[in-house]
Amino acid sequence: MMTNIGRVLKLLAAASLIPIAVIALGGCAGDSGGEGRGSILTGAGATFAMPLITVWGSEYEAARGERVNYNSIGSGGGIRAHIDQTVDFAASEAPLSVEQFERAPGTLTIPFTIGTVTLAYNLPGVEQLRLTGDVLADIYLERITRWNDTRLRELNPGADLPDRRIVVVHRSDGSGTTYVMTDYLSKVSEEWESRVGFGTSVSWPAGIGGNGNEGVGGAVRNNPYSIGYVELSYAGSLGMPTAYVQNRSGNFVAPSLEGGTAAAAAVMDRLPGGHESWHEVSFTDPPGEDSYPLSSFSYFFVYEDLDRPGRQVSRRRAEEIVHWIEWTVTEGQAFNNSVSNAAIPESVRELNLETLDRIRFNGEPVRNW
User: Fold this and answer.
1) Model confidence at 81, in pLDDT bands (50, 70, 90)?
2) In this structure, are 246 and 310 located in the same domain?
C-alpha cells in the first residue's frame, strides 16, 4: 500500500500536468457544516505548505476521526479568506502586513514549520549551479539575460554554460513563496528594492508566470534554459536540480532543512507574541556559516475570539479548531521532515501553545484540557 507521504510525492510529480486548486483531506471540499465526530474543518492559503498539510490531514483523521479540507490557493488568497472570515484557519509564508493586521483585529499568528525556497533550473549539461544574491536579482531584473554572461561564468568556472537566453519563471498568483523571494532580493539588491520591492505579489520586470509552486515547477521542467523559485519539496518531487546560493558569510549553500533551521536561529530570541504583529519577522539573508538565505516560517492565522461576529461557530467546532492546530505544532511535527519542511524549535512550540491558550469562546478559554 502506498504511504501517505508516497501519495503526496506522486501528487507533486504530476503537479505540472494537472493544476491543483483544492486538496480535500478525507472529505468533500467546502463542507463547513456538521458538528461532532466527522465534522470538517476548512483552511486555505499557501501552496508552499500544501504537501505538509496534506500529510497532516491524513494522519490527523486517523488519530482523531476529524477531517480537514485545505484549499491551496496561495498565501494571498489565504490571507483574504482569513480577513473575510470564510475559513477556520489560513496558511501563509508571509506574515500579515500592518494594514492586513488592522483589517483582521484579534488575529493570532502561529508558525508551524520552517520552509526553504529553492532556485530550480533546467540547464542541460550543468549539474551544479552557483548564484549570488546580486546576480539572481539581475537575472530577474533582466540585466543578465544569457546563461554564458561573464558574471555567471565567473561564479561557475568549468561549467558548460550555453549561449542561450535565460527563461525566467515567477508566480502569477499572490504567494508567500514570492514574499520570501522578493524579501531576499530587496535585501541584497538596492535596485530591486527601489524598482520592485517585496510582497506576496509584485510587478515582475520580466518572465513567465506559473500558478502555485506546482505551476512554477512545471514551467521550469517544461522549458529548457529556465530558472524559477519553488519550495524545496516541489523541486525534489519533480527531480529538478537546485542552485547553491551564497550566504552572508560568503559560503555557497545548498537548500536544505538544516540550512533553513540555521537561518531561523537569527530571529529566535526576538519573536513577538502570537497576538502581536509579525510583519517585521524575517530571516532571509541571515548571518551564520551554514544558513541558507531563502528560508521562512510558514504561519497559521486564526482568530482569538472564535465566536466573533460575522462567522458564528459552535463551542464544539471551536474546540476542534484548537485541537487541530495544537496537534500540528506538537505531534504533527514528526512528519515535517518527510516533505522537506523543518520542524519548529521547542521554543516556538511553547510560544504557540501560549498563543493557543488565548483563544476564547463566549469569553471562556477553549483550550481547557
Assistant:
1) very high
2) no
DSSP 337: G
- Distance, CA of 111 to CA of 96 (rounded, Å): 12
Query: Does the residue 89 lie in any domain?
Result: yes
Does an H or E element contain 232, and which? helix 232-237
Domain that holds residue 143: 117-264
- Which residues are registered as beta bridge partners of 229? 119
| H-helix segments, 32-155 | 50-64, 75-84, 98-103, 133-140, 150-155
The model's pTM: 0.89
Q: How confident is the model at residue 308 (pLDDT cuts 50, 70, 90)?
A: confident
Phi and psi angles of residue 210, each rounded to the nearest 5 degrees, phi first: -130, 145
CB 320 within 8 A of CB 66: yes
- Facing residues of 228 across strands? 120, 169
For residue 77, the SS3 value is helix
